[in-house]
Amino acid sequence: MTEQIQKIVTELPSLEDVTGVWAAVDDRFAQGDAAFPADLGIALARTYGSEGQMWQYSSVFDHLLRLLATTAGPESAAQALRLVSSAEVTGRKLDRYTASLLASNHKARDLTVAFTGHASEELRACLVHELVLRGVVVEEAPGIAGWATSPHWRHHPLGWLPLTLSDVEGLADLPSYGTRGSSHSMPYGPSESRDLVVSANARVPSVGETTTQATATAMAKAVANWADESNGRIEARIFDLAEPLDAGSVPNTLLGLGLECLHGAGKKTALSVAVRSPVQAWRVLFAAASTGGAYNSGSYGAYGRLAAWQSLAALAGSPACATASEVQARVRNCTWHVFDADTKWFEQVAWDIGLAALAPGHRQLAVLAATDTD
Questions:
Q1: φ, ψ for residue 244 (rounded to 5)?
Q2: Angle CA(186)–CA(190)–CA(194) in degrees, nearest 5?
Q3: CB burial readout 340-368, b (16+ within 10 A) else e
């Protein structure tokens, strides 16, 4: 351990401002010493890694990782991977975060070291699908294809996902990372305007709720982090219809289902319902899963992709054993709607989702609503 690193490690707990540490690291890095941030990070993790609540450590470690992972080039990528692969640094959440950072800022050829060095299997799996989301043909990528196509990880949760993007995934909102922060799109939230879309002539068949805990949990996969890690709430329910439902009668039907999220909507409180493509439904769910709600950072790209498909599959009525291609076909054949209402259930801040899927044959309607606030 160098004298400078020892000094930083010793003084860190007493610092009221860590920007000086950031500046010192940035200066060494700018001089071409890419190993210094990784050496410092490993030393800090060895000393303070078990003290997860110490804000000085968390802030400096994140800066070190971001500096390496967001600077293009093979040396920066290799040092970032050395940092997160050291014995002192572990965690599935860190692996997911690192994979997203690296895939967002490095070419695939610079990341082959992850598949030949000491990176964890979890980081590799996440990195594969972070690259897929960015259009990389991993099955043809030198240094990556061998691992990505190997059957040895087919039982990994991410192994269910295909190694190429489907047409449904064409509008993935991916984050932009820098050393000082990140940004991402939010393709949901309260509507700028609402129209009263119920019709006096709509024919609504009788319905019966068939929600089970298992189906509700599966439908809510993409937004579960809003409730588990932030202030959100979720309503996920499924209904069987006695007769095929006409698409124009969906608004009236939604109002008659006894949904908590639409309590009070109707004559005085407008309900907005619009047909959307499967692409737009997936986009909303992926953003919710990958970037999180008001007080969390989500599951990042790889697991965000998986959660979006799990929610879509359940909303579309696919059996749990369905393959990815079977789910995609089922999703394409559903009629997707987004809905919005100015009810007390929705927080009306930025994180509001209302999604309804009318199954093929129009005899089943699945509804997912979610809201969160800061």
A1: -60, 135
A2: 135
A3: bbbbebbbbeebbbbbbbbbeebbbbbbb
Q: What is the pLDDT of residues 47-94, one digit of tens each?
A: 988 655 689 999 999 999 999 999 999 999 999 999 998 867 777 889
CA distance 154 to 170: 25
Q: Are 271 and 251 in contact (CB under 8 A)?
A: yes
Contacts of residue 119, defined as CB under 8 A and 6 or more positions apart, other chains included, come to 81, 84, 85, 113, 127
**What is the amino acid identity at position 346?**
F
The predicted-structure confidence for 315-354, as pLDDT tens digits, reads as follows: 999 999 999 999 999 999 999 999 999 899 998 888 999 9
Report the Cα–Cα distance between both ends of the chain, in Å, rounded: 42
* Backbone phi, psi, residue 186, to 5°: -130, 90
Q: Rounded to an integer, what distance in angstroms lies between the CA atom of residue 369 and that of residue 341? A: 11
DSSP assignment string, 345-360: SS--SSEEEEEEEE-T
